Amino acid sequence: MIVVEGKEDTVAIRRAVDADTIETGGSAIDDKVLRRIELARERRGVIIFTDPDVPGEKIRKIIEARVPGCSHAFLAKADARGKDGIGVEHASPEAIRAALARVRVSAGGGAAAGAEGAIAQPAERPASGADASKARQADKTGATGAGVAAAAVGEANDAGEPEIAWADLIDAGLIVHPAAASRRERMGELLGIGYANGKQFYKRLGMFRITRAEFAEALRQLTREGVGE
After folding, report:
1. Do 89 and 193 belong together in one domain?
2. Phi and psi (nearest 5°) for 18?
3. How is 62-122 classified by DSSP, letter by letter?
4. 99 shares its domain with 16
5. Shared domain check, 118 and 12
6. What's the CA gap between 100 and 77, in Å, rounded?
7. What is the pLDDT of residue 119?
8. Cα–Cα distance between 224 and 87 in angstroms, integer?
9. Summary count for the chain: helices (H), strands (E)
């Protein structure tokens, strides 16, 4: 099942894929809703798909604290921008499917049902052959690697040390750089982990088990595009 913020988000999701949703009704999530998410994670798998803004990030944190180990899908702000603001409801079916194809599983714990169970089937014919093989490999890559232990920012976790060091973010111009915010935004898009400030971005690298190889490839693409240079 896909967790979204409101009814309009559900409409947008169902234009893109055949999936059931759970609506949080905003960032003040009722305990009954959290229990539904907990049950859905155990039985079917859950993908958290909130707006790419501050309230959306708050919702992710609330759910992850109560129901650790959820899967997460992120939209780029550019894909979620509408006339009256930013939200999943404004995203095209193509952008939604692209985000769902890059789902990341947090290191908080293994779900009884994986992210695949959260979606019944695509609204359009799924990719086949080499494309499908690449998609499956991308999912496997996203679910492997080291856990998070953000010692450099004063946060510890029993999952172990992250593969990406705090110093790597400095070297990559993702923090302590005049264009750090724009570079993090693009890196978040390339890695499929969304935008965050420096501390939270570092935490996400471990939370979603981003490997050094993934980080290096995204950084090469960032350099090719000349973002923030």
Report:
1. no
2. -90, 100
3. HHHHHSTT-EE----GGGSEETTEE-GGGS-HHHHHHHHTT-EE-TT---SS-GGGG--EE
4. yes
5. yes
6. 15
7. 62
8. 29
9. 9, 9
Dump pLDDT digits (tens) for 188-213. Answer: 999 989 899 999 999 889 888 899 99
Whether residues 200 and 93 fall in one domain:
no
Q: How far apart are CA 203 and CA 111, in angstroms?
A: 20
Domain end, chosen from 142, 159, 187, is at 142
pLDDT (tens place) for every residue of the chain, 229 residues total: 999 999 999 999 999 999 999 999 988 899 999 999 999 999 989 999 999 999 999 999 999 999 998 999 999 999 999 988 999 999 999 999 999 999 998 876 544 344 555 665 434 433 444 444 444 343 433 333 223 222 323 333 334 456 899 999 999 999 999 999 999 999 999 998 989 999 999 988 988 889 999 999 999 999 999 998 8
- Spatial distance between the Cα atoms of 170 and 175, rounded to a whole number of angstroms: 5
User: For residue 196, with 0-12 CB atoms within 10 Å meaning exposed, 13-18 middle and 19 or more buried, which class applies?
Assistant: middle
> Could you please report the per-residue DSSP string of 64-77?
HHHSTT-EE----G
50 and 119 in a single domain? The answer is: yes
Give the range of the structural domain holding residue 37, as residue numbers without chain letter.
2-142
- CA separation for the pair 206, 57 (Å, rounded): 17
- Looking up residue 14, the CATH number of its domain turns out to be 3.40.1360.10
Q: From the CA atom positions of the chain, what is the Rg in Å?
A: 17
- How many structural domains does the chain have? 2
* DSSP class of 195: -
- Shared domain for 90 and 15, answered yes or no, is yes
